[in-house]
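Data card: per-record layout.
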Amino acid sequence: MKNILLVAAENSAETYALQVMREFAENKAGFHFWGVGGERLQINGMEVVVPNRSLAVVGIIEVVAHLFRIRRAMKLLFRQALERRTAAALLIDYPDFNLRLARRLHRAGIPVYYYISPTVWAWRYSRVEQIRRWVSRLFIIFPFEIPIYQKERVTFTYTGHPLLDAVNVSEPRDQFRRRLGVAADEILLALLPGSRESEVRSLLPEIMAAVGLLKKEFRLKIFLQQAQNIDRDSLSAAVSDPQVQLLNQNQGFNLLNAADAVISTCGTANLEAALLGVPLVVIYRVNRLSYLLGKRFVKISLYSIVNILAGRRVVTELIQNDCRASLIYLETKKILSDQVWRQQMIAAFAEIKEKLRQEQKPAAIIYRQISADLAG
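The structure for this 376-residue chain is written out next.
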């Protein structure tokens, strides 16, 4: 049995990795996946050598603080890749770690497949050269990435976005709301503070303060989504309002589908909400020094992938100094009170969904490419 080193270091990467693993399993391809992952991947047969929770950090300064642990994980993965004579590596997103690992694997003669391109269109365009040198094939998910990699002569395959296949609602909106005890005249507000401990610590106090202001004007039922990588007890302790209920990530799509408004960290969750047609406010804040260092290299004025895909500011972004309770409150209130603004946002979401629509599942495209390459 051939084995594949899989690196899914973040929550969204784990979702996409699970799609690929299931595609391999359905086709009885006879591959064994091992590497970096979480509980969802482990349950589905992956051998987790490095738990992804140990690598879930964000921001330049935060990464430096965990540098020893990150380096140790990379050395372990590379050593085991050699010992196991791994047939190939599938690295998902997480470029600061994965591109360095790709260099080592490439030099050792191990084919490297990279899924979810680094955001070279936003910052650090120089990574294109690293991808060209060290990655055997890049799987890209956004149509606007195609001309970039054509121009740079990178070997790539366009798969379309995996969220279109992943976003599945298992319970009707009204039924889900009734089950959670949301009355017909109550507003369901969904809170998504992130999938990294550092994100949650930074964002949750401002979110909770905004919720306190909103409760004075609206009849709310408030639910906070607990990401797979976040400890439930620590999250419960950080939530100052006893009326806020925690829901695990397995109910995430049902929660978004049932929500009237969402307050979400900047990330994949923005696109999930948009694909389900739910208005949202996007917030983000990192260590001040990390932000100042990173801002020098950012080439775009929009941060949320929803706005980037739309080519304009569809959802409000409250980034860094703007990420404060008073503004979160005002923007969420606008979603709940201004029907014109709300409907404009929903219409823009429908356009984005149509733009990303594809005929084939990304995981099926990836399976066919890798299995064909490794058939010999």
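Known properties of this structure: The chain has two domains: 2-160+358-373, 173-356. The domain at 2-160+358-373 is CATH 3.40.50.2000 (Rossmann fold).

See the next section for split statistics.
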